[in-house]
Design a protein that fits this description.
Layout: E1 14-15, E2 17-22, E3 28-33, E4 36-41, E5 44-50, H1 55-63, E6 65-70, H2 76-82, H3 92-96, E7 100-102, E8 109-111, E9 116-127, E10 132-143, H4 156-159, E11 162-165, E12 170-173
Antiparallel strand pairs: 1-11, 2-3, 2-6, 4-5, 5-10, 6-9, 7-8, 9-10, 11-12
Length: 190
Amino acid sequence: MRKSFGAKTMAYPAPVFIIGSYDENGKANAMNAAWGGICSSNPPCISVSIRAQRKTYDNIVEKKAFTVNLPSSEHIAEADYFGMVSGRDVDKFEKTGLTPVKGEFVDAPYIDEFPVAIECRLHQIVEIGVHIQLIGEIVDVKIRQDCLDENGQPDIVKIDPVLFTPEIRHYLKFGVKAADAFSAGKKFME
């Protein structure tokens, strides 16, 4: 037996993406966006869907660039704040004390204190409904050294990404490993 919830945004969990951009005057801005994810492996692309009335939308269209920043659970309050106020009204970096760093490859800032920063060049815009999907071609991924394992690879536990539950509106910490990908299903391949 299942309970029907109708047409809702309940694909669990959603990532917590903090989207970095510069405005027309070069001022750093960031917003919280949970509607997004990897959308192509070749070319490597990530998507984020935001509303056209957001300052970030204008910034990305103007600069043709943005960053996707993954906060750790240590910065949940800052990440949440980035989604509560508009960059038209307040300097979010000044209020939170976080540090915008000029992207190396694109004209957009990343957040120094967050463990992962993905630099993106705007690849495509897709109008969907109340949200507009911005697809960014990934030109570089930066991960803090303290979030790498002994082999120099990303360690998801050290990254400590924040997850979001749509409709319920909770933030969650990353859990424990459940299985190895492309391995657990081998038992059905005999």
